């Protein structure tokens, strides 16, 4: 029995360093993960998905509302229909571009961490690598400024639908419900510039406006525009995180390129 116990003890002693080495390897790998870039990628994918998906459906619902209630003549809103159709195609392009760009930035974050150095040998920066990193910095800043404009633009339909909804709430209020003044409360979409001034009817008042607000198309489009605006805001936050990550990566690659160093951001 004694040799057997000694053999088991020796086997346990041999297994402990292996387990410890595997644990240390996992810790090193987790320590080299670019968490900021990972969070930004998840936030960017979520924001772009919400903006593109909800915005596409909301635009289609807006066209249906205009055709059914505010502009019965197709020639009056033909230009608007073409613009909305073009915007829907642009949404497809935005979704595809940011899917690829998010993956590229995440890969760039992984390949500038200490985990890559430890897994793939000596880490050395090159002029080409620093140039690519600088290009990502510039492109991310440009996209961040552009998405600030997209975020502001996405708030415009939310403002328009909110005005219509608040007008309907005034009509439904006990002070005005059932009185003659209800028919004098109107919404004129021509003042927003989305349809020309000769569009018919263009202006909806009273109970007819209340019926529009009770439709599922109105509420769906209104809430989808809100979600799309929130998605655009999430994308702006993700790009701000990307800005910090790429700027930090570029700074370290540039100023510490001669040292045995890489980023952990």
Automatic annotation (TrEMBL):
Membrane topology designation: Multi-pass membrane protein
The keyword Ribonucleoprotein is annotated on this UniProt entry: no
UniProt keywords, alphabetically: Membrane, Transmembrane, Transmembrane helix
Residues spanning the membrane: 38-66, 86-111, 132-156, 224-248
Pfam families on file: Myelin_PLP
Top-level taxon: Eukaryota
Signal sequence region: none
PANTHER family: MYELIN PROTEOLIPID, NEURONAL MEMBRANE GLYCOPROTEIN M6-B
Family to which the UniProt record says this protein belongs: Belongs to the myelin proteolipid protein family.
Name recorded for this polypeptide: Neuronal membrane glycoprotein M6-b isoform X2
């Amino acid at each position: 029995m004694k040799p057997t116990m000694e053999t088991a003890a020796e086997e346990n002693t041999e297994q402990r360093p292996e387990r410890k080495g595997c644990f240390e390897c996992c810790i090193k790998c987790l320590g080299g993960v670019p968490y900021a870039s990972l969070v930004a990628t998840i936030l960017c994918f979520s924001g772009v998905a919400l903006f593109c998906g909800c915005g596409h459906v909301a635009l289609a619902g807006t066209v249906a509302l205009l055709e059914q209630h505010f502009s019965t003549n197709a020639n009056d809103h033909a230009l608007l229909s073409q613009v909305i159709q073009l915007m829907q195609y642009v949404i497809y392009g935005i979704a595809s571009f940011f899917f690829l760009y998010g993956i590229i930035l995440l890969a760039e974050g992984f390949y500038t961490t200490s985990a890559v150095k430890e897994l793939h040998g000596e880490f050395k920066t090159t002029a080409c690598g620093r140039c690519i990193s600088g290009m990502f910095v510039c492109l991310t800043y440009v996209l961040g400024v552009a998405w600030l404009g997209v975020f502001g633009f996405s708030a415009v339909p939310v403002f328009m639908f909110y005005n219509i909804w608040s007008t309907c709430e005034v009509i439904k209020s006990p002070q005005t419900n059932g009185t003659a003044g209800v028919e004098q409360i109107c919404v004129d979409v021509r003042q927003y510039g989305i349809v020309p001034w000769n569009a018919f009817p263009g202006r909806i008042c009273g109970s007819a406006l209340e019926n529009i607000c009770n439709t599922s198309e109105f509420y769906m489009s209104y809430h989808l525009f809100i979600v799309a605006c929130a998605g655009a805001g999430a994308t702006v936050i993700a790009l701000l995180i990307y800005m910090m990550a790429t700027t930090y990566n570029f700074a370290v690659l540039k100023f510490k390129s001669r040292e045995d160093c890489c980023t952990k951001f």
